[in-house]
Amino acid sequence: MVVQQYRYGGGARAACALAVAGVIAVTAGCSGRGGGSGGSDGSGQRAVAAERPLDVLDRAAGVLAEAGGAKARTSMETAAGGTRVTIKGQGAYDFRRQLGRLQVVLPKDAAGADDRRPITELLAPGALYMKNRGAGVPDDKWVRVDTTALKDGNLVTGGVTDPMAAAELLRGAADVTYVGKSELSGVTVHHYRGVADLGRAARAASPLSRGALSAAAKGFSKDAVPFDAYLDEEGRLRKVRHRFSFASEGPEVSVVSTLLLYGFGAPVTVTLPDEDDIYTGEIRQG
């Protein structure tokens, strides 16, 4: 079992930690209604614009589970002390099994080098597996992180917000406004804006997501997570942007995480590493 602590300094170092190490650690302790049923009737034919926004968002994670697999693109922008870094990812996610595989691309380093190899990330309930994670890790080995032990529940640690966690966060929505109808990549979507409460989302989450979200609810300094969500006519989440913020040893760190979903029904194959393939040695940062 890998036991590690991820630490970073204040100011610009805090913002750059994610780009340099592929990991960001949260070092500080994230109105509406309580948890809903979270289910989906699978009809996929609801007129979402005519429904209460809270009901549409509460059902979003269940609708994705009914849809099965989807392709995903991610973007995470971190800002602190006037420094911004952006991390991008692309892959696929199975919402039924809550398993995903993404290639995460780090930005150039401080010297301008852009030859960093992409980090391969496998997302699973309660765990994050990373290959090409850091200095000192053999090329054929994975690093495993227990996401229920992370102070952010893996909402920002891997440079990617777990797609199911992103949808489950909407169960904690409050103060939601229906912004209107628009088009996203040729698909009609309905735009909702609001604030999610981490504690409420954790209590309403599905059992496989509850542990990580509960950790985030305890670890973030602010419970409130502003968001913009875009759902199609069938109630499937097509895009969501969350804005996380937390205290560090220096200035407050702001993280904007964006998830795009498309290609619903795409097959998703994820094979988790065997124990022999998991690295248990020390990882050097940098």
Radius of gyration equals 18 Å
Secondary structure tally: strands? 11
What's the rounded overall pLDDT mean? Answer: 81
Assembly type: single chain
Q: Describe the largest sheet.
A: 11 strands, antiparallel
Query: What's the total helix number?
Result: 6
Q: Which spans of ≥5 residues are poorly predicted at pLDDT below 50? A: 1-45
> Tell me, what's the shape?
globular
How large a portion of the residues is in β-strands, by DSSP E? 25-35%
Distance between the termini: 22 Å
Order of helices and strands: HHHEEEEEEHEEHHEEE
Question: Which features does this protein show?
Answer:
286 residues; 11-stranded antiparallel beta sheet; 6 helices; globular; disordered N terminus
Structure description:
By secondary structure, the protein is α+β, with helices and mostly antiparallel strands. Helix content is 18%, strand content 35%. The protein contains 6 helices and 11 strands. It has helices at residues 11-21, 53-58, 60-67, 163-168, 198-204, 207-219; strands at 69-80, 83-94, 99-105, 119-124, 127-131, 142-146, 173-184, 187-197, 224-232, 237-246, 253-262. Strands 6-5-4-3-2-1-11-10-9-8-7 form an 11-stranded antiparallel sheet. It is globular, with a radius of gyration of 18 Å. The model is unreliable at 1-45 (pLDDT under 50).
